[in-house]
Amino acid sequence: MIEDVQRMNTIGWIDALLQDVRYACRGMRRSPGFTTVAVITLALGIGINATVFTVTNAVLFRGFRLIDRNDRILYIGTQNNGRGCCASYPDFVDWRTQARAFADMGAVADLQIALSDATGAAAEHYDATQITTNAFRLLGQKPTLGRDFAPSDAQPGAAPVAILRYNFWERRYGKDPTIVGRTIRINGMPTTVVGIMPRDFSFPQNEDLWLPLVPTPDVDRRDARGLWFAFGRLADGATFEGARAELETIGRRLASAYPQTNQGWVPQPRTFAEFFVGRDAALIYGALWGAVGFVLLIACANLANLMLVRAIGRAREVSIRIALGAGRWRIIRQLLVESLMLSALGGFAAWWTAKWSVRAYELIVNPPTRTWSDHLLDFSMDGRVFIYLLAISVAAALLFGLAPAIYISTLDVNGALKDGGRETGDRGGSRSLSGLIVTGEIALTVVLLVGAGVLTRSFLNLSTVSLGVRTADITTMLLSLPQGRYDTTGSKIGYFDRLSTRLQATPGIESFALAHALPGSNATRLQAEIGGAPPVDDQHRPTISALTIGPGYFATLGAALRAGRDFNDFDRGSGVPVAIVNQQFASTYWPGEDPLGKRLRMFQGVTPGAWLTVVGVVSNVVQNSDWRTHDPLVYRPYDQQPEREMWVIVRARVPGGTLAASFRREMQAIDADLPVWLGPFTLDKRLAGMGNYWVVGSNAALLSAFAAIALVLASIGLYGIVAYSVRRRTQEIGLRIAIGASGLDILTLVFRQGMLPLGIGLAIGLVASFAVTPVLETQLVRVSPVDPLTLLATSAILILSAMLGWLLPACRAMRVDPVVALRND
Asked: Which of 73-77, 420-424, 432-436, 583-587 has the lowest mean pLDDT?
């Protein structure tokens, strides 16, 4: 009997719910305009939330495509005195042997290669990575064709082998399966292709192929920190905190056992986002996520106002239902079902909005010059995104539907029926609720506008910042001399000397220079000892930027020599070790003194280099990736510090694009097997695609778009409350005009109606921005998070938008015919 009663109650509840759904559908059909506006607003608000969550999900949680359980993989580098660095192969072996928090560990070493398919064929540059032979198995992948690396492939003296990326195999070899087993030439060495990885798989960047990491004598040294990073999969039950503590313990043990090479070096495990995106990844994407959350709140606030006005218009209908016995919960449930139905339609439209927005992000927002590429990530809208979309759709329905539903359920039935269906539900409480909602919209909009404003100013500062050099008419390319043919100091210097001679004889080229890093990109960071300063231990030595340059560097880039001399032909390897410092270095370490003749030396790990004598002081050139400050910088002549990898820099009288053929012709006339690693391209183009410039610009564009949407929604909300107030007060306005009120009086009356929520919302928003915008500080260049000019501009934009929103209702109020208004009273 009890079960029958329960069954009947359940059936009755389901029937009532279905009745509410049918009633809601009829109501939406009767009000197509309202339904369309509501669905579009929700599609926009929920859609951009789902878009940002999809991107955030890919970057912070999912990581690389096709890798099994990304969230259980940690990426491990090292750190010394706050300075991050790569790892040594012997350290990696000790970590793998001693760490119990990891099921397995692998290692990665970056590599640039010159590849040709036959002896004597022109070599081309491709990206490659050296990995330990267990790496693919650790990542949960195996070749789709051929075989994986075997431990024997990493033995010194083993025959060279390679595995190709699917996309590279498709692009270069047309998916020819016979490439497996065929011999190609990599850096002049015959190498056998043994496998092809699955489509869309790449790790950890856009590699074209992988080679086994062979622990040669040069690699297997503790002072040779040649690994880009190690990576490990956490064992079952292990945690990130436990793995970090264990690695720190192993690091201290190694520092005690090998003080000359490991003192001060600490293993640093990081998540995918921390390692590949940056330490502030969660903060940056969290800020964008918060911004679109504000947009959704504003959209819901607008809908809440619309629902409130619509509910007030249905006061007589609701009163009749209450008079016939409908309870308060029954009324609330009916209105909430309508809200959920609207939100369901909006959520469905939002799914497609997000889907196409994510595609646009992948195709447009992702630049090719970033250190890691977004298309390596999995941006598919998985179950986590679907659950998030469902959750915010339900939350949105409650946000915009609950307050109007509760309000209308408390109607005075007698009053509503007595007044014959006019908007008697419109009591003072509804106006207060509507005003409160609009005030919240405005406050949220102010926070978004301030955030977008400071980021935009930061981007403008970044785009106009002076690097301290003349970038116009500069063309550059990157060369990397391969091992084997260029192992000696003389062979490296000899190649670039010959290239300099040939390029300077090329028509159109005015000057030629070399540099290990371009302006605006990071120079090598080394610990240093300053001559004459009190001695300090290796934990407290200053860290400086050091850059190797060739003859003519300052003249080519237009940097000014402030004191002393430039490098000359006597600054060779057999000469006195010399250096040139920038003004920032001189003022930091020798304030008020003449830096010429001063000495300093730099350390490779704990090994000190030769003492360098300062022979010149040059103007400050920005040599870091964030472009915010001038680092203390030391320049060394190329002939005393030859590097394999150097940027060739030329100032030319002809467009940079026309120099590509000349570059390749002259460099391959010296060595036919040497390709251009990057470029040629103009320095301006290179700088425009660099990390900090692009990140600040894209974040400013995104936040500005969100702020613009929020501004439009808030203006519409303010327009709505003023327009409704004008309609509600038509008789009052008609009476005022009848007794002599002027158009200016009516205009003032209407404007005063909107000033209260605008003023309060603006004040709250400005105060809130002081607490919220500091999270953007890491993205700002030469502007404060609470920049006064931005706050003033934000206030002006909002007030102007509000006044435009008030204009139409004000004009309508000024045209009220007092005779008609009083007749309708």
From this structure: 420-424
The Cα–Cα gap between 486 and 685 comes to 30
Expressed in angstroms, the distance from the first to the final Cα of the chain is: 60
> Position of tokens 């878009």?
51
Axis-axis angle for helices 315-323, 281-313 (nearest 10): 70
Per residue in 662-715, pLDDT (tens digit) is: 787 788 788 877 777 777 888 877 776 655 555 666 667 777 777 777 777 777
DSSP string, 464-483: H---SS--TTEEEEEEEPPT
Q: Is 777 exposed, middle or buried (0-12, 13-18, 19+ CB in 10 A)?
A: middle
* Amino acid found at 605: G
Residue 760 has pLDDT above 80, yes or no: yes
CA angle at 370 for the pair 110 and 649, rounded to the nearest 5°: 80
Cβ(397)–Cβ(339) below 8 Å: yes
Q: Is the dihedral of CA 216, 222, 225, 228 positive or negative?
A: positive
CA distance 626 to 634: 19
CA separation for the pair 472, 115 (Å, rounded): 33
Sign of torsion over alpha carbons 290, 292, 293, 297:
positive
Looking at residue 626, what is its pLDDT? Answer: 66
| 121: helix, strand or coil | coil
The answer for residues whose C-beta is within 8 angstroms of residue 93's C-beta and 6 or more apart is none
Mean pLDDT across 2-11: 51
User: What number is the average pLDDT over the span 311-319?
Assistant: 62
Is a pLDDT exceeding 90 seen at residue 531? no
Q: Which of 400-404, 609-613, 742-746 has the highest mean pLDDT?
A: 609-613
pLDDT tens per residue, range 216-246: 887 888 877 778 889 999 998 889 889 999 9
For the residues of 486-508, what is the DSSP string, one character each?
S-SHHHHHHHHHHHHHHHHTSTT
Nearest to 149 by CA among 193, 186, 116: 193
Paired tokens of 719: 């327009």
| Partner residues linked to 612 by β-bridges | 600
Largest CA-CA distance found in the chain, in angstroms, rounded: 107
Residue 367 predicted with pLDDT over 60: no
Separation CA 642–CA 489 (nearest Å): 6
In the prediction, which pLDDT does 778 show? Answer: 66
Tell me: cis bond preceding 680? Omega within 30 of 0 counts: yes
Using CB atoms within 10 A of its CB, is residue 239 exposed (0-12), middle (13-18) or buried (19+)?
exposed
Distance CA 511, CA 493 (A): 18
Please name the amino acid found at residue 740.
G
Beta-strand runs (E) in 117-188: 124-131, 145-146, 161-164, 183-186
Strand pairing category for 124-131 and 209-212: parallel
- pLDDT reading at 146 higher than 50: yes
- Long-range CB contacts (< 8 A, 24+ apart) of 490-494? 492/642, 492/643, 492/644, 493/573, 493/638, 493/639, 493/642
Per-residue b or e along 683-719, where b marks 16 or more CB atoms closer than 10 Å to that residue's CB: beebbeebbbbbbbbbbbebbbebbebbbbbbbbbbb
Among 3-12, 152-161, 498-507, name the one with the lowest average pLDDT: 3-12
CB 204 within 8 A of CB 371: no
Nearest to 176 by CA among 187, 191, 166: 166
